[in-house]
Amino acid sequence: MHVYQVRPRKDKRGVDLISDTLPFGRPWYDGPNAVTNATGYAMHGSRSHNAVIRAYDDAGNVIETHEHAGRFKEP
């Protein structure tokens, strides 16, 4: 199962998408749809795996949780 975290940046400029499964490090998103865009990227990147995506606020509390069931099944 892939686990993703969407956390506000310390410099207050958007959010970071954090996971051990990301191939190119930690992407960051800015703008009014930053959390939605980061969640969409995580769901797309884990389309063949089960995933849990958690969005956090500035205090470190979980504000959203998305569970994604992978669509690829082995025969």
What integer value in Å does the Rg equal? 13 Å
Number of helices: 1
Major sheet: size, sense and barrel closure? 5 strands, mixed
- Arithmetic mean of pLDDT: 83
Instruction: State the distance separating the first and last CA atoms.
Output: 19 Å
**Structural class from helices and strands?**
alpha+beta
**pLDDT < 50 stretches:** none
Q: How many individual β-strands?
A: 5
Strand order of the largest sheet: 3-2-1-4-5
Note the overall shape: globular
Question: What is the N-to-C succession of helices and strands?
Answer: EEEHEE
Residues in helices, as a percent range? 10-25%
Strand content: 25-35%
Written overview of the protein:
This protein has one helix spanning 34-45; strands spanning 2-8, 15-18, 28-29, 51-56, 62-68. It is of the alpha+beta class and 75 residues long. Strands 3-2-1-4-5 form a five-stranded mixed sheet, with helices on one face. The two termini are 19 Å apart.
